[in-house]
Design goal:
This protein has 263 residues and is an alpha/beta fold. The chain has a single domain, classed as NAD(P)-binding Rossmann-like Domain (Rossmann fold, 3-Layer(aba) Sandwich). A seven-stranded parallel β-sheet has the order 3-2-1-4-5-6-7, with helices on both faces. Bound molecules: coenzyme A.
């Protein structure tokens, strides 16, 4: 039985992480790598990916990268092939690529709405659909990074609310369809997380940060480490019977209604 406080939980595993060049998903990759997993970082910008890979290798981990936009199914296929050729079957997928900007519905074009739906929802579909043939079956785990937007209507965030609601439901359907093959599919739902591109966009000033923190029962943002610890647990055999779950890690934020203080 795995002991999550002592064991090296993911030794020798292979992980594929979209949005892995920065933010929460990079921290998850770093956590995986520190537990002995080979991590493939996927993102749009090669420079950013190379810096992230260098950081992981510098800390003694095994990492590589492949530039691909999750909206491009063929580019993702190339990235999966590369990962498979390098390290074999894929044990862990993290769908972490996301897009966001604050704007009211009347302040966004149809293309603006579509761009976030394409990154968040279609990108998650592309990653799961394209990755399935490369997954270790049984035993693989897929995690998507959602947001409290999926079940809380937040002004200026219609695109993200719609996209993340889709991600949650897609993940539940995949858990049902792929459970018999031994593939688990779960969702992590963070609230506000410190030192991320998302919060820099949504709470760019000290006043906005204080306003957002005040709405969280624990009165602070999460750290990226706290989200990475949850990802580590959900990806490991310690969570072998957990699938189709939306795991909220938001300091209680979603209990207090919409709370980003955007409008
Ligand atoms: N308000 C209203 N519309 C906006 C906008 C804003 N702040 N920012 C972008 N848009 C619109 C653009 O005008 C464009 O619409 P148009 O063609 O009708 O003019 C549309 O969104 C697409 O913009 P573009 O910059 O071409 O898309 P992109 O694919 O390069 O970028 C985004 C995607 C817009 C989601 C961009 O914010 C992004 O790349 N985000 C990734 C990083 C990120 O958001 N991280 C946080 C995750 S929580």
């Amino acid at each position: 039985m795995a002991n999550i406080f002592r064991d090296n939980l993911l030794t020798g595993k292979v992980a594929f992480l979209t949005g892995g060049g920065s933010g929460i998903t990079l921290r998850i990759a770093e956590r995986y790598a520190s537990h002995g997993t080979h991590v493939m970082l996927i993102g749009r910008r090669q420079e950013k990916l190379e810096a992230a890979v260098a950081g992981i290798r510098g800390a003694g981990g095994s990492a590589d990268s492949c530039a691909a936009d999750v909206r491009d199914y063929d580019a993702l296929q190339q990235a999966f092939k590369k990962t498979n050729e390098l390290w074999g079957q894929i044990d862990l997928i993290v769908c972490g690529a996301a897009g966001n900007f604050p704007a009211p519905v009347l302040g966004m074009s149809a293309n603006a709405f579509k761009s976030v739906i394409d990154i968040d929802l279609l990108g998650t579909f592309n990653t799961c659909r394209g990755g399935y043939e490369y997954l270790r079956k049984p035993g693989a785990s897929i995690l998507s990074i959602s947001a409290t937007h999926a079940f809380t209507p937040i002004p200026l965030q219609a695109h993200v609310c719609a996209g993340k609601a889709g991600v949650d439901m897609l993940s539940k359907v995949l858990a049902v369809e792929w459970g018999p093959s031994g593939v688990r599919v779960n969702v992590i739902t963070p609230g506000p997380v410190d030192d991320t591109e998302g919060m820099r966009r949504l709470a760019p000033t000290e006043e906005a940060r204080a306003n957002a923190s005040a709405k969280v029962p624990l009165r602070r943002f999460a750290s990226k480490d706290e989200i990475a610890d949850l990802a580590l647990f959900l990806s490991s055999d310690a969570a072998a019977y957990i699938t189709g779950s939306i795991v909220v890690c938001d300091g209680g934020q979603s209990l207090s209604g919409h709370s980003l203080g955007l409008a």
